[in-house]
Amino acid sequence: MTIDTHVHLWAAGSLQTQWMEKPPYRGDPKWRPLRASFRPEDLQALMEANGIDGAVLVEAVDDLEETDALLAIAREHDWVAGVVGWLPLADAASLAAALERLGDVADLVGIRHLINTEPDPDWVLQDTVIAGLNRIAQAGLSFDYVGISMAHLERLPRLADACPDLTIVLDHLNNPPVAEGGFQPWADLLGKAAARTNVAAKLSGLEMCCRWGDWTASDWRPYADHALACFGPDRLMLGSNWPVSTLSGRYGQIWAAHRAWLSGLSETEQVAIASATACRIYARSAV
Predict the structure, then answer these.
(1) pLDDT of 98 strictly over 80
(2) Is there a domain that residue 126 lies in?
(3) What are the φ and ψ backbone dihedral angles of 165, each rounded to 5 degrees?
(4) What separation in angstroms does the CA of 238 have from each of 52, 172, 227, 262?
(5) Which pLDDT does position 100 carry in this prediction?
(6) 256-259: long-range pairs with CB below 8 Å, 24+
(7) How many domains does the chain have?
(8) Most buried pick, 34, 75, 171, 283, via CB within 10 A?
(9) What is the spatial distance between Cα 203 and Cα 267, in angstroms, rounded to a whole number?
(10) Buried b (16+ CB within 10 A) or exposed e, 64-76
(11) C-alpha 242, offset from chain centre
């Protein structure tokens, strides 16, 4: 079994594409191809063609309307392994109301907030947000951490310490410097984050860290190997970051790169990274 733990779905011109209107994405023409519709049937066809059994839908805008839309898709498609949606973490009353309405929805497996578009990297360390994260942990939900800078990665251990009962999933390995061939300080900071046992990571989005459209699986290997050494197979999983990934590579190309790397691991490690870790961390999954 293989689970794609990081995909997005959206309609052109909808609120789901509003993230492209915020820094650092606003005004950058290279994101323009994503101003299109990416539908469940489009993803399902790609999954079937590439032997992917399930997918986790991940929020693209901090709005309850999208969370409801993704949950509706999950109800209609049995290949959806779960939804990482959005809840108002910084507003205790609104969060309580949202959890009252959605807390028992089995398809809702985690929460994400676009900390990558918050001007202050300390946003996630505010007392109100910490309280909100501890509340979702009580509800059995994980938190996807979408860091894009070393400042984000530096703050991750502090967040993990402040929320010891919360499973935190680091998206895209926090964008390692693959294109530049760099390794530090990313490598040391990743190790410090992984030292917190409530932190896991997605091997996803690496095609976006490469020179767009000009990469091979070997470009990823040092970063994937380091992530495995830090987290182990039981805290590491795979994702495509589709459709954002289409800017740099084809869906099949990304999964071929994942499988090329997995082929050098033991069968036990392969099973964990391809599916078992995701099924455990996103524990509400029906897959």
Answers:
(1) yes
(2) yes
(3) -95, 0
(4) 11, 9, 12, 10
(5) 96
(6) 256/217, 257/206, 257/207, 257/216, 257/217, 257/220, 258/203
(7) 1
(8) 171
(9) 18
(10) bebbebbbebbee
(11) 11
Length of the chain, in residues: 287
Q: Rounded to the nearest 5°, which phi and psi values hold at 134?
A: -65, -30
Cβ-contact 161, 128 below 8 angstroms: no
Separation CA 84–CA 114 (nearest Å): 12
Average pLDDT of 29-56?
95
**Per the domain annotation, does 238 fall within a domain?**
yes
For tokens 């046992």, the residue is: 197
- The residue range of the domain holding 220 is 3-281
pLDDT per residue as tens digits for the range 228-242: 999 999 999 999 999
Q: How many helices (H) and strands (E) does the chain have?
A: 11, 8
> For residue 179, what is the domain's CATH number?
3.20.20.140
Q: What are the distances in angstroms from CA 252 to CA 35, 48, 187? A: 22, 11, 28
Rounded Cα gap, residues 156 and 171, in angstroms: 12
- Supply the pTM of this predicted model: 0.95
* CA-to-CA dists, residue 34 to 127, 141, 220, 279, angstroms: 35, 29, 24, 29
CA 186 to chain centre: 18
Mean confidence (pLDDT) of the chain: 94
Cα→Cα distances 155→141, 145, 239, Å: 21, 11, 23
Farthest CA pair distance, the chain = 49
Question: Does 118 have pLDDT greater than 90?
Answer: yes
Across the beta sheet with 142-145, what order do the strands follow?
3-7, 54-58, 80-85, 108-113, 142-145, 168-170, 199-203, 236-238
Residue 287 belongs to some domain of the structure: no
Mean pLDDT of 164-190: 96
